[in-house]
């Protein structure tokens, strides 16, 4: 087979040259280009391929019939402000953690829990005042209905908010322990389910939360933070005992005992509201903030190295009157002699 071919300008087919070159393509009747080698590079060919649009003939005819109006020279109306932007590389986004979202709502839930228990306690004491009033006079129906509604509403809302707050605090504890141990170059030795069970299972949650918070303080804890954790731990155990007593007291049989249970339930609700505020103070203290959320300023007492400066001059002992008078007379004689 011949290595010299003639390509067709219309269909692109290549025809081998056997003798004299041909002029027309046997397939499409297009013009055949001059002969050349099959593997000849582009620099050694005596033709070149030109890419044209399919409607180049009609476009050329239309352009020839119209004369384009002269247009102004393109120019900028103002100094261009565009340029190549090379922003610094952004750090890789951390994987989202569902526990961080729950822990972020901790402060709001604690405040909401404190308000809910405060209103529940006021509703219980309002019911107690209604009972006292009912000893001598009849209670209007609207007042009794309002008392029942407030007791039921806040008595149901407060435990629900407390449960959500407990879940948020557990999420915060898990994340805080992870960050604290990671800063120390270690991993949290306790598993996540251990922390959840120790904080939420009744009975166990009276002991283990204090242990978990104490471990969070590290090997060399801050004395103030350690004291705050111990105070919170004692208040947590006391609030648990108050809750158990209030629950058992609800099964009283006599009217006086039932009235006392209403009063004690209101007291337990107020204690729960105070404990929510104490919890908010404790967790913010562990984060280096005060109760309002502002950064806590540290104070250090150091020993003074400079010598003590006398602010008030010491009192000199006075001269006796006789010695003073004799000294005055002697000075007078000296002045007369001098004259």
Write the layout of secondary structure elements.
Elements: E1 4-7, E2 14-16, E3 36-37, H1 56-65, H2 98-104, H3 106-133, H4 141-183, H5 192-200, H6 208-216, H7 223-249, H8 255-286, H9 321-338
Antiparallel strand pairs: 1-2, 1-3
Helix pairs in contact: 2-4, 3-4, 3-8, 4-5, 4-6, 6-7, 7-8
- Uncertain residue segments: 332-339
Shape: elongated
What's the average pLDDT? 80
Q: How do the helices and strands follow one another from N- to C-terminus?
A: EEEHHHHHHHHH
- Measure the end-to-end span: 156 Å
Number of strands: 3
Largest sheet: 3 strands, antiparallel
Strand order in the sheet with the most strands: 2-1-3
Determine the fraction of residues in helical runs and give it as a percent range.
Answer: 40-55%
Our count of helices gives: 9
Q: What is the SS-derived class?
A: mainly alpha
Portion of residues in beta strands equals under 5%
Rounded to the nearest angstrom, the radius of gyration is 48 Å
Characterize the structure shown.
- The protein is 54% helix and 3% strand.
- With 339 residues, the protein is mainly α.
- Among the domains are: 1-42, no CATH class; 99-286, no CATH class.
- A three-stranded antiparallel β-sheet has the order 2-1-3, with no helix packed on it.
- A hairpin with a 6-residue loop joins strand 1 (4-7) and strand 2 (14-16).
- Helix 7 packs antiparallel against helix 8 (255-286).
């Amino acid at each position: 087979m011949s290595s010299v071919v003639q390509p067709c300008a219309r269909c692109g087919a290549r025809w081998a040259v056997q003798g004299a070159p041909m002029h027309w393509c046997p397939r499409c009747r297009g013009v055949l280009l001059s002969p050349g080698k099959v593997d000849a590079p582009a620099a050694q060919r005596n033709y070149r391929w030109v890419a044209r649009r399919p409607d180049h003939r009609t476009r050329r005819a239309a352009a020839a019939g119209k004369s384009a109006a002269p247009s102004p020279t393109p120019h900028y109306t103002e100094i261009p402000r565009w340029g190549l932007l090379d922003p610094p590389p952004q750090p890789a986004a951390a994987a989202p953690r569902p526990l961080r979202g729950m822990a972020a709502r901790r402060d709001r839930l604690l405040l909401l829990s404190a308000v809910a228990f405060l209103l529940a306690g006021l509703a219980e004491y309002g019911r107690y005042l209604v009972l006292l009033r009912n000893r001598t006079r009849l209670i209007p129906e609207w007042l009794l209905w309002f008392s029942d509604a407030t007791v039921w509403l806040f008595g149901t809302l407060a435990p629900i908010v407390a449960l959500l707050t407990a879940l948020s605090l557990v999420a915060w504890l898990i994340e805080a322990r992870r960050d604290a141990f990671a800063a120390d170059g270690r991993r949290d030795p306790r598993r996540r389910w251990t922390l959840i069970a120790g904080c939420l299972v009744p009975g166990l949650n009276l002991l283990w939360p204090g242990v978990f918070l104490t471990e969070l303080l590290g090997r060399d804890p801050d004395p103030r933070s350690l004291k705050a954790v111990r105070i919170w731990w004692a208040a947590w155990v006391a609030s648990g005992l108050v809750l158990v007593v209030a629950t058992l007291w609800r099964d009283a049989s006599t009217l006086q005992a039932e009235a006392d249970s209403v009063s004690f339930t209101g007291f337990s609700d107020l204690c729960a509201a105070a404990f929510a505020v104490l919890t908010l103070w404790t967790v913010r203290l562990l984060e280096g903030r005060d109760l309002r959320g502002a950064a806590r300023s540290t104070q250090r007492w150091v020993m003074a190295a400079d010598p003590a400066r006398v602010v008030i001059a010491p009192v000199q002992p006075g001269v006796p009157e006789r010695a003073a008078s004799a000294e005055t007379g002697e000075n007078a004689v000296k002045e007369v002699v001098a004259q």
